[in-house]
Amino acid sequence: MAEDQTEWIKLPPDEKCVHKQWKARVAGYEEALKLFLSLDEKSPEFTKYLGVLKKICVDTNAIAQEKALDTVLAFVENAHVAGRSCGEVMTALVTKCLNASRAKTKEKAKEIILMYIEIDKQETVQEELMKGFENKQPKVVSGCVQTLRAALESFGPKVITLKPLVKMLPKLLEDRDKTVREETKMMVVEIYRWIGAALKPQLANLKPVQLTELETEFENLSSDRPVQTRFMRSQQDLKAKAEAAAAVADEGGREADDDEPVVEIDPMDLLDPVEILSKLPKNFYEQIEAKKWQERKEMLEAVETLATQNPKLMPGEYGDLVRALKKVLSKDTNVMLVALAAKCLTGLANGLKKKYSPYAVQCTEAILMKFKEKKPMVVTALRDCIDAIFPSTTLDAISEDLLTALADKNPNVKAETAAFIARCFTKATPTTLNKKVLKPFLEPLSKTINDTSPEVREASFDALGTAMKVVGEKVMTALLGDVDPLKMTKIKECCEKAELVNIKGKAAAPKVAAAPKAVTKPPAKSAASTKPPSSKPGTAKPAAAKAGAAKAGAGKKKPGKKAAVGESKPVEPLLADETVDEKAVEFMGEENMKNLANSNWKQRLAAMENIEQEIKRTPKEDMPTQAIVRIIGAKKPGIKDNNFQVLKLRLSALAYLAENFSFSWTSAECILPDLVEKIGDVKNGQGCKDVLTAAAEATEFPKVAGEVIRIAFEGKNPKNQSESLNWLSQAIYDFGFKVNIKALVGSLKKALAATNPAVRQAAITVLGVCYMYMGSTLRVLFEDEKPALLAQIDAEFEKVKGEKPPAPTRGLKGAEDADAGEDEAEGEDTPPVEDLVPRNDISDKMTDELLGKLSDKNWKVRKEGLDEVVAILGEAKFVTANLGGLPEALKLRLGDSNKILVTTTLGIMKTLGTASGPHCKKHVAILAAPLVSTMGDSKPMVRHAASTTLDVWVEQAKLAPFVEDGVFGESLKIENPNLRATLLNWLSPKLKEHQKKLPAELKECLPPLLTCLNDRNPDVRKAAQDAILPFMMQTGFDSMLKAASKFDKSSKDTVVGLLEKARGELPAKPKKVQSVPVVQSHVSIKEIDDLLNDKDTETEPSATKSSSAKPAKAGGAAKKAGTVRGKVAPASSRKKEVEVDTTPIITNTYTKAQRLKEEKNLKVLKWNFTVPRLEFVDQLRDQMEKNFSSSIMELLMHKDFQKHIKAIQMLTTALESYKAETLANVDLILKWFTLRFFETNPSMLNKALEYLLALFELMHRENQILTNSEADAFIPYIILKVGESKENVRREVRKIFQSLSCVYPVSKIFMFIMGGLASKNSKQRAECLEELGCMMEKHGLSICQPSTKEAIKEIAKHIADRDNPVRSAALNTIVVAHQIVGDQVYKYVGRLNDKELGMLEERIKRASRSKPAPVINPEPAAPAPKAVGRSRPSTAPTQQGHRSSSNPPTNRPSTAGTVAQGADMAAPRDPRYTLTTCYNPPMDEVVLEEISDELFRYVTEPIPPLVLKTRKLPPSTPTKGSMQQQNLLEQSPDAKSAVDMTVTNIASGDLFTASSALSQLNYTMSEPQHQNMVRSYADQIIVMITLQLKKLHTTHLNDTDSAATSAAIKLHFMCTSLIVELAEKDMIDKTSIEVFKDFIAQAVSGVLDPKLNDHPEGADCISNLNISLGKILLHGHHTNTLCAPLSLLHDCSGAVLQCTDSYIELVQKCVWKKTRNLSAVISKIEMGPVLKICNSFFNDYPPAYWRSKPSDKPLRTVKTVIATLISLASERVYTAISVATYSPKAELEAYIMKHIAKREKSSQSTVTGNETTLSQQQSPGKMAQFIHNSLAGIFKKIGSRENSKEGIMDLYLFREKYPDASLEPFLKKSSSFFQMYIQRGLQNIENEKKKASSTIGLETTRGSGGESQARGEIDWMEKLRGHRERMKKLGISVKPISSSTGNLAQAVSKPPPDVVLSTRPSNVMEDVLPRPTASVAPTPVSSSVKNAELMELKARLERIKKSSQT
């Protein structure tokens, strides 16, 4: 009994933990606890305990349970798989531990739960604890609440999700158990500590008593801010920050986290959104427009109730509701309803928050205009509404409406607008209120501070003061330079009073007791955290230092980009040497530390390898970077290590540290000198550069670059100097131009003066790089260099002139722009590179005397003064902005009456612009107006000089200052035709080229510009018309339309027409993803259509009278645009003659590339819908308006189908007149037609389908293909029409499918049509199935996607369809597949029930009976000629036939076996896409295409003999086909689609198309940059070539036409040559087994094809097949090329395929060849796949199977492969068969083990083999023993049933070798029957041997692997000569024939690896085996058991056995 109680002691811990005795379990828990604490976290031991954790948590023994919880805690803390146990363990803890009676049990359970949260399982923990709230036991509920409170207290609300928790509080507060209520109350208080007042709305429904108690608790809370004291594993960075902050607080004696952000929770986040749209009154939209105001009020009150009672609304489509409310707000006359509508909008905006942004802009405009109301009730509601809307939009988005409102005449509108702007500014930051946003508001606000209304003035002052508060007084003072000082004082007073809501741009959180300050004490360490993640010392101190540095710099940094970059720079103090050594020893170990300084380089190398591994294993937070950098790079020997291998590892480790860890400037400074010293090293110089680059990226590039150059030029090593400069030139490309130019220039001048030419050249290279950024200014800095050197510098500048500097690819880690919006404005504060040039101050030279000369009355004196100015500027070269009184003097001279002086002054200004550079901007205000006025001079010379001068000034000062000055608008108002024409002609290109938006002052130019359109001067009108588009690009169409609205009616019509014309030419504007969507505030489509219909009768007659109409292009008179963005111009009271729109109907302004980019970036909707929605129509309209004229757009977007027909007619005309534009807009055209497919008018639909046919034909002629995006937008919708009820529509759709195959890969079309099978329309399913059948019949099964098996399986599902046409179509399609692959189709279709399978089999039988022979002429077909010679193996594909006669008649002509000619062959066809089905008319029978002379010349051109011998494709000569093919990849917009199309065309039935595809692939493969693309298509190419070879052998070679046959032979050569090319370029190293298998099967079939005998080039075809097959086996994937022939041999050996002996023999040869080469590639062979196929062979064809076969050579071939593998890699074979999972494998395993045993035995006896033989001859006793043992083994084998025949043969051979050996001792022991059996067997073998010897002699069979002495040498001489002749054709070397006796097999040298099969078209086996005779079967004899003799001997022995039994 005692033994039973202690037996558990020997058990392992995991079994003890679940033992039935509690003592055993306790012991197990203790052992497991120790084990868990000692194991590595990723140890596999932890997984053993996953299944028992739940069980041990619920231990019934209380003592054991406590120990168990300790164990579980250790497991959760230390095991990396602990998270997997969270769910089940939590369930056990909640139900069995939190309600325990022992307090320790509860506490430990809580610790485990908190530890689960620490390992990032907080979601599961919270879910399980909240499930515990529903438990019936109050103890469980209170325990769960208490635990959750503890988790919230430790981890905070960022870890514990409050939203679901808050929902449960009311229920828990009303629990009947007091403990639960108290714990819940404490939970509420804890939540309030974290989120403050945000919790109160959730408690509003509590009882007053409870609320009072809670309020009391809230008031008693401490004012300290709660902080997170415990962190998850994923929050270790936060933990480090908290510890650092605590350290700073301890050192500084102040609170550490005063500046830390409060955990702000939006009360809205705690609410669930409510859907209110469905709750609106059903008749809301009707009643909101009711005439009675009471009814409207009821609707508004209903909306207000929904919006206000539900603070959080669910996002949805609120557009209709908002529009209805906005209409009431804008137009309702009842002010009470206006206020009510404003409240409704306020509720919607508050409830939707950011989701309200789509409606914000349109509402803002309406509210601003409604501020004209004076009723306080309305104004207050509007004010609240616009304030609620603003958070959902931005100032930039509504700026135009605000500026318009500020300019309104109504003072109320201006006052409220200014007040609203001020409120907006209070919520802004310097980032959001940058100069770009602020500037447009300053000018109107500067005007409104002078308004007569005091309310307007006060509001404007408040707005400006608030803006000053945000951006700073300095910025605002600069921007408000013209404001009166008194007003500026007022603005500053307002600035002081202004209060910003929150400087961070967030909603301010109320400062109440709920959001207390931080706790000053450091975070408490958890009791469970016994193993913190960062246990290495030294990590907390740098973190604290870093945090302190950050705190110190926080107050000094300025907002903006520089501050952001500065914040992210790692700052670190320099560590003491002792600290460095201490940290390094701790990190890398003392031994590595010593070895690193060892004098033996091998010790240093080993140490560096260990250190590098340790670095890569260490987490980022644990890495003492500075210490490791200094040890590796600075401590002796450091980077100066004299061994290049050690140095390479040092540099690699340093680069890795800089790239992956916190790498400071302090660390970089320690190693820079040594790096520069080693940068010139030949072997490790590049490594030094890599370290420098990584250090620059980790710290600051300018610092590193400056230090590197300084150190390099302080030294004297020219190699280091040149390499440092080379690094710098590349680094500038990588980091951008961020170097200190002034310091760099000094170093470069030193380098240019160096004696070493490499240093000078490197300096010149750096100058070239800098020139890309600085321009011609850089040249001035080096003008004092020698002329020869200057010439070299100029030559370098010329190389990069005009190039744009590349975008930087590297930068400071994690640095981001602090202000993304301040692009141009931010750039203005940065000093330009031109300031680096030394400038001269010429102000002192502008004396009073000189200025007096410039203003003298005498023109000669004035000219003298101007000449002096010219001299001063020429001497100074570059001047500062201080010009003294010169600008005012020049201003006067620009208006001089003397034109010569004006011209001189313009020259001075031109020089001055260049000399002062960007500083000339300061003088624009003085000189711009007089300069522009000179453009109106009557002298052309002066006007030209003025334009040139203005070009220079704009180049230096940019265009914006001129626009801001308003000089252009004022000048255009002057009625001077010269000035207007010259200025507009100058402005037009400048505005087009200007990328950024110009200031709003440009709009001042619009009224005079539009006035110029009606000017009397034609030059002015022409210039104004040309300027419309540039101005519209800058100001927008709406602004110009608004300016045009002020014209009278007669002028307005002309102007609006020109604006509409220019609008169509506008380029596409890139849309911002975050921008507010366009609001459709225009008239509805229905109203536009009605208005257009009303105008039809008025416009058309007038249009016919117009003399300027062009009916040929427009297809009819187009009416003048009368609508502008949906607003219709009022109809005239009388008919007027309207101008005809003569603009092109299609342009390419908005390119397809732009559209594709926008769709890719999700800026537009993807064209995908079930029914077209309004947003898709609007989107298409917006896109088409940019490229289509207004006349055709009216027709395209009309609702009348007759207009659509007119539009299609115009598009049809444009196919020829606007061919390029049509092709550029194919995607838009196809999308428009998809919309038409949803309409039902048959006339329009027929026209549409006809146009689509013509469009695809045009694309085909122009070598264009559909892109994937175009196909995705069109093909799914054309498939919908294939199920149309009208036959003519279906017929046209079929034609479109045929045309599509010319411009898009057939395999992808197949995928789309497969998708159509899911339709509910039975006609559509039937037609799709029929189309799939046609495609498979024509292109083979290679087009089936995603795979042949899946596609056919999906098609087979429709056999069970209840609709008869669908069933029939599915059966017909599978019949087509059966005609291609045969019975293999039954594997593809999957499992069918008996009925469906019977239907399929019956249809296949009928199809095979009714399959006709190929028809070659209209006469009755003659029977197919019988094959000559042996029959072809059945693995070759059968002849493709027509469909069963039971098929319903279709118009798809079958092209199998024919080369059909299309109807439209007059137009030239591109051979890339020529498919014979394009536009084929219905034909009664298929007729062979008449081959043109061009096609005949192309495909029958004789191939030079050397082409195939060198295994290359025919050269790409510039024939018509090849020249058109060469640029397909460049021409196609979608290169992948082009390659898909080309590869698919290889298998085309059209010889011309297939040849062209092969030619193009050959050309593409010759280009190195395209080879990777071709490599990815290698599998598909081989599959297509295999299919093409099948077609050639089954179809084209049967043709009686010699021309067609020659073309087929030529294509045959090209196919095999391309295979050779692929193999030689190693592109098939990843090809699969199935692909190789199919090709080998086809190649073997081709070799045996008897039709090649009759063709003169048939032998060469077989030779090429042989070569290509050899290349495949040599260069292909070695495992797959071995498995493929083995798998094929397996298939051929069965009775299913019924292959001929010749076919099997050639497949065996492939296996033999691969087996012979195994020794060279054995390391690359994967044993698993090979053994799996061999195992299948053994199982499917056991030895008993071969007894009934004439030969078992396939079995022996497979055994030979296995034996060869064992001989080369026996261990790998043994491992592979041991781990194999397939079964049964007993036979293969036994065979392998047998051979391995033999091999081991033979290897042991090999050494003493010869000695044994000699000793046997010398020692009769030993010899007798050897004979006795051998005979004993032989007789044992004879006695076994399975090996009896083999034993008799062994006995026969043994007697031949040892004739004196006696058999009597063994025969005596046997029966007389056994003795007679042995004697008869031996006699039969002897007789057969004599008979065979007398008949045919002997032969050595190479394929069998044996060697025998040939007899009858003379008989073989003739045969050997025949061999030699054929070998010469293949270039195989042949040895001289020796007449001496010996092994004749040695006469012919070993053929090259390219040759596998015979080159003769007859039976190849005749070259190796003797020819069979009619009387005797061949039985060659050898000295061992060979293939042929075993076959015959087994037959003889069987007969002997039968005769003995009888």
Describe the structure.
Helices cover 61% and strands 0% of the residues. The chain is mainly alpha-helical. The strands form two sheets. It has a two-stranded parallel ribbon with strand order 1-2. Strands 3-4 form a two-stranded antiparallel sheet. A hairpin with a 2-residue loop joins strand 3 and strand 4 (1127-1128). It is globular and about 150 Å long. It starts with a helix and ends with a helix. The model is unreliable at 253-262, 503-570, 812-831, 1070-1139, 1412-1533, 1806-1819, 1895-1917 and 1929-1987 (pLDDT under 50).
The structural class is mainly alpha
What separation lies between the terminal Cα atoms? Answer: 74 Å
Strand line-up in the sheet with most strands: 1-2
By DSSP (H or I, 4+ residues per run), the number of helices equals 96
- The overall strand count is 4
Low-confidence stretches: 253-262, 503-570, 812-831, 1070-1139, 1412-1533, 1806-1819, 1895-1917, 1929-1987
Quaternary status of these chains?
Answer: single chain
**Percentage of residues in DSSP E strands:** under 5%
**Shape summary:** globular
- Helical content stands at 55-70%
Which structural traits does this protein have?
2006 residues, two-stranded antiparallel ribbon, 0% strand, 96 helices, 61% helix, globular, mainly alpha, two-stranded parallel sheet
Please outline what is shown here.
By secondary structure, the chain is an all-alpha fold.
What is the fold's blueprint, element by element?
Elements: H1 2-6, H2 13-16, H3 22-38, H4 53-57, H5 62-78, H6 86-96, H7 103-118, H8 122-132, H9 138-155, H10 162-173, H11 178-195, H12 208-219, E1 224-225, H13 236-252, H14 284-287, H15 293-309, H16 319-331, H17 335-352, H18 357-370, H19 376-389, H20 395-406, H21 411-426, H22 435-448, H23 454-471, H24 473-479, H25 485-497, E2 517-518, H26 540-554, H27 561-567, H28 577-588, H29 590-596, H30 601-617, H31 625-634, H32 644-660, H33 665-678, H34 685-698, H35 701-714, H36 718-735, H37 741-752, H38 757-774, H39 777-780, H40 787-800, H41 824-829, H42 848-854, H43 859-876, H44 886-893, H45 899-916, H46 924-933, H47 940-957, H48 960-965, H49 967-973, H50 977-993, H51 1006-1012, H52 1018-1035, H53 1037-1044, H54 1049-1064, H55 1085-1105, H56 1111-1114, E3 1123-1124, E4 1127-1128, H57 1152-1160, H58 1174-1185, H59 1190-1196, H60 1201-1217, H61 1219-1224, H62 1226-1236, H63 1242-1261, H64 1268-1280, H65 1287-1303, H66 1306-1315, H67 1322-1339, H68 1348-1356, H69 1364-1381, H70 1385-1388, H71 1394-1409, H72 1493-1499, H73 1505-1509, H74 1520-1525, H75 1528-1531, H76 1535-1545, ...
Parallel strand pairs: 1-2
Antiparallel strand pairs: 3-4
Helix pairs in contact: 3-5, 5-7, 6-8, 7-9, 8-9, 9-11, 10-11, 13-26, 15-17, 16-17, 16-18, 17-19, 18-19, 18-20, 20-21, 20-22, 21-23, 22-23, 23-24, 23-25, 28-29, 28-31, 29-30, 30-32, 31-32, 31-33, 32-34, 33-34, 33-35, 34-35, 34-36, 35-36, 35-37, 36-38, 37-38, 38-40, 42-43, 43-45, 44-46, 45-47, ...
